[in-house]
Design goal:
Layout: E1 4-7, E2 10-13, H1 24-28, E3 31-39, E4 42-44, H2 46-60, H3 68-81, E5 87-94, E6 112-119, H4 122-131, E7 133-139, H5 154-165, E8 170-174, E9 180-183, E10 187-191, E11 197-199, H6 210-221, E12 226-228, H7 233-237, E13 241-246, E14 250-257, E15 260-261, H8 269-281, E16 284-285
Parallel strand pairs: 7-8, 7-14, 11-12
Antiparallel strand pairs: 1-2, 1-6, 3-4, 3-5, 4-16, 5-6, 8-9, 10-11, 10-13, 13-14, 14-15
The chain binds 4'-deoxy-4'-aminopyridoxal-5'-phosphate (PMP).
4'-deoxy-4'-aminopyridoxal-5'-phosphate (PMP) binds next to helix 6 and strand 13.
Length: 287
Amino acid sequence: MTRIVYVNGRYLPYGQAAVHVEDRGFQFADSVYEVCEVKNGALIDEERHATRLQRSLKELGIPSPATSWTIGHIMRQCIVRNRVRNGVVYLQVTRGEAPRDFAFPSGDVAPTFVCLARSTNQSKTEALAAAGIAVKTLPELRWGRCDIKTVMLLPACLAKEAARAAGAREAWFVDAEGFVTEGASSNAWIVDAEGKLITRTLGRELLPGVTRATLLDLIGRDHLAVEERAFTVAEAHGAREAFTTSASATVMPVVKIDDMLIGDGKPGAFTMRLRSSFHQVAKVSGR
Ligand code: PMP
């Protein structure tokens, strides 16, 4: 449970934490965010998340609300104040409050900065990974800069809801040429018949996932065969194994894509090995 939330310089009780009605995050989704895993009370891959946050801010021309060191300090405070041992830290930075106008406000507008930490149910996540998840493919309907981690998440919400209604846990977006871009809140991976890992090359169509980058480090360390390229829905349906990556669920096996069982319909052995080795390479930063 979240008890304390950081909002613009203050740590407030959850029920009292609020931002202005004319905050540009609320009115225009003029806002970026990060989600970082917390494991044993420590942040995982903090530097990569900090780097991506600064990139997202720069791409939108939002000034950074603080240095990466201070942001790290605030994240740790949220972890400690909410007694999170295993869970996530969520932070969001908006362009700030200004009378509603599409164009950016002139003058110095302070960005809004919100941070909260929350425990996640570890046994639930592990049970999910042990069973594997189902995925539904859907036409890509997001915007042209999916590489920026903005809060413009309505298409992702609609896709997740459509997936849920179809009995799936995640949606995989498919571009006009029939290639999978990524998941609604994760990156998409398959393992082909030869045991080669395949995930889409970075570009404007997908988020450069921190978990994706760290998994590529693991793959490099262990000299595993990998190809960064787009794959089709047909390739995904016929894959030996499939999985998603995200900070909140690390490596999550996929056992069904649309109506097709992947492999024997159970989490793949290779995927589960990657899942269990992931934290050997992920960077841990203590309190
Ligand atoms: N793609 C999208 C669209 C996402 O929302 C996420 C999770 N935030 C990811 C990929 C995975 O990124 P990360 O590994 O940094 O959590």
